[in-house]
Write a structure and sequence with these properties.
single chain; two-stranded antiparallel sheet
Length: about 120
């Protein structure tokens, strides 16, 4: 099934995913990325190291690393170039759990809405 068939109505089935649900999911993902990115950034700014970069000579600023790592954790990509340290491991685990449950919740919402 292509992405196109999710949004364009089929004469038999109707739309599986509405544009409203898509923007809702997009907004939810961006909110979680920004929220956890701010948590990592606040810890870094107060002097607690929660993220370590594997290659120290290419060290990015804390702002960039925090939001990059947040997106990588939420989408379960985990490139390994930025790793959590200390309390950052617990925060990263919570974010990864949210990243695993969001798609399941979205699919459940779509199919429950479709039954109505």
């Amino acid at each position: 099934m292509s992405i196109r068939t999710l949004f364009i109505p089929n004469t038999i089935k109707g739309k599986i995913v509405s544009i409203d649900n898509f923007f809702y999911l997009l907004t939810l993902y961006l909110t979680v990325i920004i929220g956890f990115g701010l948590i990592y950034l606040i810890f870094e700014l107060i002097g607690l190291t929660v993220l370590l970069e594997v290659n120290p000579e290419n060290r990015n600023n804390p702002f960039e690393s925090s939001f990059y790592f947040s997106a990588m954790m939420l989408f379960s990509v985990g490139n390994g170039d930025v790793v959590p340290h200390g309390i950052g491991r617990l925060i990263a685990a919570v974010e990864a759990l949210i990243g695993y449950t969001l798609p399941a919740a979205f699919v459940a919402k779509v199919f429950f809405d479709r039954e109505k």
